[in-house]
Specification:
Layout: E1 5-15, H1 21-32, H2 42-68, H3 75-91, E2 95-104, H4 108-117, E3 120-127, H5 134-148, E4 152-155, H6 163-176, E5 184-190, H7 194-198, H8 208-211, H9 222-236, E6 244-249, H10 261-267, E7 275-279, H11 288-304, E8 309-312, H12 320-336
Parallel strand pairs: 1-2, 1-3, 3-4, 5-6, 5-7, 7-8
Helix pairs in contact: 1-2, 3-12, 4-5, 6-9, 10-11
Length: 352
Amino acid sequence: MESSKTGILLINIGTPDIPTPQAVGTYLKEFLSDPFVLDLPAPIRYALVHWLIVPRRKIASAALYQLIWSSTGSPLLYHSRRLADSVGKIMGSQFVVKAAMRYGNPSIKEVVSEMREEGVTRLVAIPLYPQYSLSATESARSEVIKRSGDLSTEILAPFFDRPAFLDLYAERVRSALSDFQWDRVLFSFHGLPIRHVTKLHDFCKVDDQCCDSLSDNNRLCYRAQCFFTARELAKRLALAPDQFEVAFQSRLNSRWITPFSDTRYAELPHEGVKRLAVVCPSFVADCLETLEEVQIRGARTFQNHGGEALKLVPSLNSEPEWAEAVSTWVRERLELCFHGEGATAPPLAGST
């Protein structure tokens, strides 16, 4: 009888199947219908998504996806699958390693079902979001728990503070900037509505004083984790305080966490910054938010306001060293877990 296998599920946020308005509309409906993302009463959320937001955004969003689509399809899905293939080769035949998207295809439900058919009885899920948020991390955790059923399941915690992640990203920056003379490094993280941050911490001030250190009080704070990541990368890169800053991108309105990346692209040339390096450490794979929002749109804004050049530092994508790091985390976790029957209850953040 074939021995049971362990499944390794690498989860990223998602992508439309193809860059057409219809496919993008389908993707946006699933994404925005998640109560972790749009935390409004269900009837209001449905009306906003189906009658207002998606009809208005699907055509424009499809045009943006077309700018970053390649012969291999979606960059996010391409790198996620390549990473899964590399981790699978490292881990060996007793492991089934697959990539899944929280929204779109391949879905977590579909991939977990495939794993069962391949003999998987234990599951290690890794949401590929370095920092913790309700809308990404907690949504992925909830979906894994819903779909894993009787599988012994472990969900790895966010890895914003793991030395391997920080070391690899710092080396990525160092390599990318070896031939680029820069005036400032901007660490641009994905933004969140302020209410997504404050609902976890009623004392939260959402300012630099509150986020300038990490403690037990704010360890689950997305903004504080982002600033921690930036400080650790700056330390590894030997950046002085006046050589780097932190901002947040992808905002929908002014009620998102600040400072805003798009505002800084317009302001920095007037502050003497002519050559800007942008690092996006909340993304482990290049996608619409890095390739279009930063490399195309951000660079255009920067240059239109007097900047000379903006360089995007590539994400970790599917580099061999990244696959090795992910594989090591799985091995470490398996040494601690699955010694008995049933699933363990993983902590939300900060586990090792």
